[in-house]
């Protein structure tokens, strides 16, 4: 049983990030982590916080309106197994965003709900007689426009909880483990569509590569430290079919990723830190400071 849950815990690595643009909370490539074919359903809650600083080009008087932004998402999420090879997932986010310049502007509300289906194309993580073990899933999902996107008199569209669009999400996950050491990769792509206001947020790509070590402290407690790299790319938004220059969007980012996962019986706790190593967001006018995620999961036995 422990090996099944450890396999699941390894799947909680990568980011589930929503960003209205490169410095927001609903347009980055959606990622779900590697979810091998364990024998458990699960339910969990996690909180993701991202900090940015924006420094637009000077106006006609040489003034730069420097501001800081906090994008915070708290999610209720879970997985239900439909069989040995298929499972479905749902993510229900609540968004709290805040921008501070000469004044502080907060906005919060329900975000865009995501539903995904995953196919397990390989999983022998529970085969203890194998020196090398593998797990892999491929997933396809949809992001629904449940979050508020339009607010009368509110111009900071990157701060709003939703995008107003139906988006398609694709994920490919794979991990390999040799004894207690392993490698994990997740690649995710989000295809954005135009919302009813003729605004289309840019497509997004995310790739993570991690090295992990599984430390079995005792029969009840497992600790899994991880270290690796994350790459994100966002295409620019379009307004009425043409590239939009109204918001900070588009660019590349390379992050150092550090994770620690603890599993005690059926309860998993995780802490993830993303530290920017190099970035070029909106021609250098936007800088991400860091990203932090903390979460807890409870695993439920499944007979399937």
Secondary-structure map with pairings?
Blueprint: H1 2-10, E1 40-54, E2 67-81, E3 86-100, E4 104-110, E5 114-123, E6 132-143, E7 167-178, E8 181-191, E9 199-200, E10 204-213, E11 215-216, E12 221-234, E13 238-239, E14 242-243, E15 251-264, E16 267-281, E17 286-301
Antiparallel strand pairs: 1-2, 1-17, 2-3, 3-4, 3-5, 5-6, 6-7, 7-8, 8-10, 9-13, 10-12, 11-12, 12-15, 13-14, 15-16, 16-17
Q: What are the defining features of this structure?
A:
mainly beta, 3-stranded antiparallel β-sheet, 17 strands
Account of the protein in words:
The protein is 3% helix and 57% strand. The strands form two sheets. A twelve-stranded antiparallel β-barrel has the order 1-2-3-5-6-7-8-10-12-15-16-17. A three-stranded antiparallel beta sheet has the order 9-13-14, with no helix packed on it. The model is unreliable at 11-27 and 33-37 (pLDDT under 50). It has one helix at residues 2-10; strands spanning 40-54, 67-81, 86-100, 104-110, 114-123, 132-143, 167-178, 181-191, 199-200, 204-213, 215-216, 221-234, 238-239, 242-243, 251-264, 267-281, 286-301. With 304 residues, the protein is mainly beta. It is built from one helix and 17 strands. The chain has one domain (2-301): Autotransporter beta-domain (Lipocalin, Beta Barrel). It is globular and about 60 Å long. This is Transporter. Keywords: Signal. Residues 1-19 form the signal peptide.
């Amino acid at each position: 049983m422990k090996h099944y849950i450890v396999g699941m815990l390894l799947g909680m690595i990568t980011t589930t990030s929503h960003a209205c643009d490169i410095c927001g909370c609903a347009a980055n490539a959606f990622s779900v982590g590697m979810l091998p074919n364990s024998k458990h359903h699960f339910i969990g809650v996690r909180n993701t916080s991202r900090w940015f600083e924006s420094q637009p080009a000077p106006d006609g008087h040489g003034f730069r309106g420097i501001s800081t932004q906090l994008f915070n998402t708290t999610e209720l999420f879970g997985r239900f197994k439909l069989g040995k090879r298929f499972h479905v997932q749902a993510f229900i986010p609540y968004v709290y965003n805040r921008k501070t310049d000469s004044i502080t502007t907060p906005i919060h509300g329900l975000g865009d709900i995501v539903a995904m289906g995953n196919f397990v194309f390989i999983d022998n993580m529970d085969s203890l007689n194998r020196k090398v073990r593998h797990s892999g899933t491929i997933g396809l999902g949809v992001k629904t426009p449940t979050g508020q996107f339009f607010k009368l008199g509110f111009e900071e569209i990157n701060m709003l909880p939703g995008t107003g669009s139906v988006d398609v999400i694709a994920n490919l996950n794979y991990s390999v483990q040799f004894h207690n050491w392993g490698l994990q990769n997740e690649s995710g792509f989000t295809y954005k569509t135009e919302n009813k206001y003729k605004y289309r947020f840019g497509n997004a790509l995310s790739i993570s590569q991690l090295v992990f070590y599984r430390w079995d402290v005792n029969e009840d407690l497992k600790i899994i430290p991880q270290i690796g790299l994350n790459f994100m790319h966002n295409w620019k938004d379009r307004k009425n079919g043409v590239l939009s220059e109204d918001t900070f969007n588009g660019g590349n980012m390379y992050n150092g990723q550090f994770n620690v996962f603890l599993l005690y019986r059926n309860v998993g706790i995780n802490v993830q830190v993303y530290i920017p190593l190099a970035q070029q967001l909106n021609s250098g006018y936007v800088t991400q400071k860091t990203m932090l995620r903390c979460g807890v999961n409870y695993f439920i036995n499944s007979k399937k």
